[in-house]
Amino acid sequence: MTDPRRTSPPDSNETSHPETMADATVVWKELMYEAGRRSRAEVELFLTTFLSACQAQGWSDLEALRRLVALEDPDLYRAIVTGRLPESFPEALQVVWSDFVRRWPTRRAVSVSRTGPLRAGEWVLLMDAKGRRYLTRLEPGQNFTFHLGSVPMDTLIGQTEGTAVRSSKGHTLLVFRPTLRDYLLQMPRHAQVVYPKDSAIMAMWGDLYPGARVLEAGLGSGALAMVILRAIGPTGRLVSYEIRADFIRRAVRNIERWLGYVPENHEIHHEDIARAQVEPGSFDRVFLDLPTPTDGLAVATGALRPGGILVSISPTVPQVQETVEWLRASNLYGSIEVLEVLVRPWNVRGPSVRPAHFMVAHTVFIVVARRLRPGQTFVDDVYI
Ligand code: SAH
To answer: Which of 83, 177, 212, 217 is the most interior residue, by most CB within 10 Å?
Structure first.
């Protein structure tokens, strides 16, 4: 079955749009329940208000609903969490929409604090004596249940981080707010995410700084995007490309769950990076995590300003080889480096002071290179 959300705007001649008012209403309501987690009554009430505002605009009900249904997932999701429809919607509908969003904020919109007592709605990390970690959200009246018993969440709300609590079966759990590293390893994911051990090095080798303009492909589950957003801060700008709409939706949610909001300075394009239209030299850094890195190299090279840095990661040697050969053949890069990151945890307990028995042996290779100024060529034969 064709998913109506994937169709182009309603003024095109696409035939896969919902044909009847009933179909359009069903699709739209599902989107609203799913994206906003609102009650059915709230959605019904909003629909009535929205449609009468549409009539005042001279739009038929069906046309109005089709316009909503035709929004790409990230656009609809962004509209729901920011209270702003895309600009193609008239001002009168913007007012109805933002009124709805203000009156019935999404259930998951939470102001995430990083310090102070733990609050209802926040994510917490519970750690047992074996160091196992559980990420959970504090819901008043609910229990956190795991194989060693349960803990009423009301006993955690208001607590200070670093407190130990006892489960119903007498096991101790430590409670903390999750770090970004904890969250990245525990959040729902589709694609393979960039591991914190790699993104930590990528942020430094890629020299991310507050205010940087960064281009990224593909977005995947948004793990690397979160590290970039944190490093560039609110004055920076991140533009991500991703070909899978379902991955975009998941990534937007993951990012919003972590930050508590959808960041204004993160622009997402549902498009192949190879086809991206990017103003030459308008990015300081480019991060590529693509199954075929060479798909993104031409756009990356055009996008980077002189001195800009390219960071491309790949799990296999042939991908690395192709990337480096492409960069070298272009003569547009200097300082090409290839590395991998091995983090070996240690066990330190009594006399047993030794490396841990297990480690993550392989994730990706990291390629880093710096863009030359236009017209400058340089053939670097030495790759260490
Ligand atoms: N860095 C991401 C994971 C990316 S996985 C994270 O940390 O979560 C690679 C992603 O690239 C996949 O989601 C895939 O759909 C996307 N992709 C593959 N080819 C692409 C292309 N040509 N343009 C944009 N995205 C692409």
So the answer is: 217
Query: Mean of the pLDDT values across residues 26-52?
Result: 71
Looking at this protein, which amino acid is placed at residue 53? Answer: A
Structure tokens at 92: 């009168």
Q: CB of 218 closer than 6 A to ligand 1?
A: yes
The pLDDT value recorded for residue 100 is 76
Cβ–ligand 1 distance for 244 under 6 Å, the answer: yes
Q: Identity (one letter) of the amino acid at 82?
A: T
DSSP 259: H
Distance 250 CA to ligand 1 centre (A): 13
Is pLDDT larger for residue 289 or for residue 264?
Answer: 289
Cβ of 247 below 6 Å from ligand 1: yes
Tell me which residue has tokens 């209802």.
Answer: 120
| pTM attached to this predicted model | 0.77
Q: Which of 193, 240, 241, 242 to mutate to test the pocket of ligand 1 (most atoms within 8 A of CB)?
A: 242
The answer to whether the CB of 190 falls within 8 A of the CB of 352 is no
